[in-house]
Amino acid sequence: MVNNNCMKVLMISILVVVLLVPLSGCTSTSPSVSPTVAPEVQTLRLATTTSVQDTGLLAYLLPEFEKENNVKVQVIAKGSGEALKLGETGDVDVLIVHSPAAEDAFMAAGHGWNRTQIAHNYFVIVGPASDPAGIKGLNATEAFKKIYAANATFVSRGDNSGTASKEKDLWNKTGIKQPDNKTYAWYKSTGAGMADTLRMADQLQGYALSDKGTYLKFQKDLSLVILADNSTDMLNKYDVIAVNQTQHPYVKYDLAKKLVDYLASQPVQQKIGEYGVKDYGVPLFYPDLLSKSS
Questions:
Q1: Which residue among 94, 216, 249, 259 has its CA within the 20 to 30 Å range from the CA of 58?
Q2: Across all residues in the chain, what is the average pLDDT?
Q3: Cβ distance 201 to 223 under 8 Å?
Q4: Distance CA 43, CA 252 (A)
Q5: Could you tell me which of 160, 237, 148, 158 has the C-alpha nearest to residue 186?
Q6: Do 71 and 43 meet the contact criterion of CB atoms below 8 Å apart?
Q7: Would you state the pLDDT for residue 159?
Q8: In this protein, which residues make up the domain named PBP (predicted)?
Q9: Of 60, 47, 54, which is closest to residue 194 (Cα–Cα)?
Q10: 2 occurs within a structural domain
């Protein structure tokens, strides 16, 4: 009887072992590997003057920044005045603008940090090759006086842009009150960006104040020519400004500061100075932070 019981226990033990051995192969001693999750792409909101957008400069510079920082830059192209307002309300993280007096007020009110002049070009006065007001070769102030005296068609941005601000400044220097399109039939106002303003001036065969970069970008589509160029009163400076995170805690200051540093870096300054040379023979913008040894 004892032997029978022993045999039963032995047989049960063998059966258990037989059943468990296949199951042991299903258990891996290797650590489990979690699938790799790509970091979420962040969005950086950039309000910029239309000229750096219309010329293609941003499309040339931003992809490398986006790749390096796993970020998508949302570009909002406005006149500088409107861009600065978006900064005041914290609706954007960073600005590129070219309206010095408005920028001074923006910074004095504590809306911005890290204001950095990254580039410049020049304003130009363009018009029909026939030059009915006879402004060719004059400085901007004298050119405006002659346009006014001749009642020659002039097409203004008529918005709150850096270019419109510069136009107002030039009229002030002439001692002539800036014309308006309600009083003077020859004075037109588009309320639009630089490219659209140039197109209207071309259609009307009138004069216009433009940043040189945008004019060169669209020159092939226009019959207008540059008549007043590179005078000392036509300097056009471009600044990048991060929005103050103290006033607006939800803005992405760290990313904004990275963009400021990126645009001020030597490799990018070199790229700014090269942009446009191949197609137009001159750069559309001149870098302001490029080391002479670069």
A1: 249
A2: 89
A3: no
A4: 9
A5: 148
A6: yes
A7: 86
A8: 37-266
A9: 54
A10: no
| CB 121 within 8 Å of CB 236 | yes
91, 184: one domain? no
- Residues 111 and 161 both lie in one domain: no
Note down the domain range covering 66.
42-120+237-287
**How far does Cα 250 stand from its chain's mean position?**
21
Q: Are 82 and 107 in contact (CB under 8 A)?
A: no
Percent of the chain with pLDDT over 70: 85
| Exposure letters 23-34 (e unless 16+ CB within 10 A, then b) | eeeeeeeeeeee
Q: At what angle do helices 266-274 and 57-69 cross, to 10 degrees?
A: 160
User: Is 252's pLDDT higher than 50?
Assistant: yes
Structure tokens at 207: 């004069």
| pLDDT at residue 139, rounded to an integer | 92
Phi-psi group of 135: left, alpha or beta (phi > 0 → left; psi -120 to 50 → alpha; rest → beta): alpha
Q: Are strands 187-189 and 154-156 parallel, antiparallel or unpaired?
A: parallel
Cα angle 171, 172, 175; round to 5 = 95
- Other Cβ atoms less than 10 A from the Cβ of 183: the count is 8
Residue 293 inside a domain? The answer is: no
Place of tokens 């000229």: 51
Cα-to-chain-centroid distance, residue 67:
17
Model pTM score: 0.81
Cβ atoms of 167 and 174 closer than 8 Å: no
